[in-house]
Amino acid sequence: MSDKLPEVTEKEWEEVNDFNRQIVSEFLEQGHLSPHTLRQYQSGLKIFFRWVKENCMNKPITDLKPRDALRYQNFLIGRDLSSSAIKFKRSAVSSLCGYIELYYAEDYPLFRNIYNKKIPNPPKTLKNEKKPLTPQEFDLLVKTLEEREEWQMLAYVWFSYSTGCRRSESVQLLKEVIAYNRVKDKDGNDKAYYITHNIRCKGRGREGKVRKLNFDDRAMDAIKKWLEVRDEDECEYVFVKKTKKGEVNQLSTSSLNYWCQEIFSDIVGRRVHPHQLRSTRATHLVALDGKDIKSAQKLLGHESSETTELYVIKEGDDDIDGAF
């Protein structure tokens, strides 16, 4: 079975109950959803209502019952999706139900969220091991990309590792950063890092949380090398993709997924994904360099150090030794 359900085509969506399509459209117009969450909700809700069309006689959502919600969840489990993927699709439907309860109470006073507390969440499963790259694996990745002269990929690896940023944040990097100087201390001396322009990071709403990311000389040198070999173009972003028509556009996050899954994984010898660079940075900083968890927290932009601790995966018996 596939870990990813096929997206709903325009033809399939046109066959979905009119009310269901209308309510999804209204729900997605809410301003508090970030663009990324909006795309995920849209995809998840379309998949749900395609299933409703095929398995519940295309009923409007207001006629569905908790047993239908359970059947849908079992369908997702049967497709071998990860527990996190199932929970998100469940959450999308539940949020839509909450929207109907709040804004359509007069029209449907008896309607209740079909995902009630009696329907258990799917058991937690890990589809892939969440293990950071070891220093040896990271060095192999960097060295191989250098040998292959994959300068854009190398710049992405060093920038993402240095900043600990997410894939959606890295693609926002502008070419102008190569003209930036190192940060100065209060005495006017250079510090060991640079600061980017404002970058929209993960957060609620359309604006999200705006931050400036910190990166080191290794990342700066890699970015400069990539821009040096890149042909002149008018695209303002560092990471780009050239179309068949010769146009140069901002790189998509799906391209980063491809790099990791098809190229980096082959180099390292095991599965690599974009978020792994973020976890690798945190782990190396704390477990290998001996830095305080607060340093990693500030670099990654977490509100709580408890979140950062989830990214730091230590090997060995040190922790259990301390218990005895």
How much of the sequence lies in strands comes to 5-15%
Describe the strand arrangement of the main beta sheet, using strand numbers: 1-2
Question: What is the average per-residue confidence, as pLDDT, rounded to a whole number?
Answer: 86
Distinct helical segment count: 14
Q: Strand-and-helix sequence, N→C? A: HHHHHHHHEEHEEHHHHH
Helix amount, in percent?
Answer: 40-55%
Largest sheet: 2 strands, antiparallel
Shape call:
elongated
Structural class by helix and strand composition:
mainly alpha
Structure report:
The longest helix has 21 residues, at 35-55. The radius of gyration is 23 Å and the shape is elongated. The chain has 324 residues and is mainly α. The chain contains 14 helices and four strands. It starts with 9 loop residues before the first helix and ends with a helix. β3 and β4 (248-250) form a beta hairpin. The strands form two sheets. A two-stranded antiparallel sheet has the order 1-2. It has helices spanning 10-14, 18-28, 35-55, 66-78, 83-103, 135-147, 151-163, 167-170, 217-229, 253-268, 274-288, 293-300, 305-311, 318-323, and strands spanning 194-201, 209-215, 240-242, 248-250.
Which properties best describe this structure?
single chain, 324 residues, mainly alpha, two-stranded antiparallel sheet, 14 helices, 4 strands, 51% helix, disordered C terminus
Secondary structure elements and their pairing?
Layout: H1 10-14, H2 18-28, H3 35-55, H4 66-78, H5 83-103, H6 135-147, H7 151-163, H8 167-170, E1 194-201, E2 209-215, H9 217-229, E3 240-242, E4 248-250, H10 253-268, H11 274-288, H12 293-300, H13 305-311, H14 318-323
Antiparallel strand pairs: 1-2, 3-4
Helix pairs in contact: 2-3, 3-5, 7-9, 7-11, 11-12, 12-13
